[in-house]
Amino acid sequence: MASVFSMIINGDLPGRFVWRDDTAVVFLTINPVAPGHVLVVPREEVDHWEQIDDALYAHLSTVARTVGRAVKDAFDAPRVGLLIAGLEVPHLHIHVFPAWTLETFDLSLADKDPDPAALDDAAAKIRAALIAQGSAEFVAE
């Protein structure tokens, strides 16, 4: 059975995408720890991050860093957080989010009912920052 992330990637479930390439996608999480919290997800269903090949890991890291710079700019954050938790969905995903305090890294404090308009606004800000940084070819609409 396909993971929930594969269903989002395939368009079977909705997602607010900000990045798409042949190997990975990035979309907003529905439970953000801060506005602008995104997930970097490989198209390939891989459960455990330590089991991916080096090329995929390098690509995901590059995408996370690129999108992280856009998140930092879009939300004027002093830091960008990055976490690989791997407990919520059995499909590798890297959390990238603007961070102001250490509490931002606590996924148990995530918003369980975010405003859909705020999620749409966050996606638009990240897309605009990606375009401004020269990554327009990967920006998802």
UniProtKB/TrEMBL annotation:
Domain HIT: start-end pairs: 4-109
Active site: 93
GO molecular function, one term: catalytic activity
Higher taxonomy: Bacteria, Bacillati, Actinomycetota, Actinomycetes, Mycobacteriales
Name under which the protein is recorded: HIT family protein
Chain location of the short sequence motif Histidine triad motif per the record: 91-95
Gene Ontology annotations of biological process type: nucleotide metabolic process
Cited PROSITE patterns: HIT_2 (PS51084)
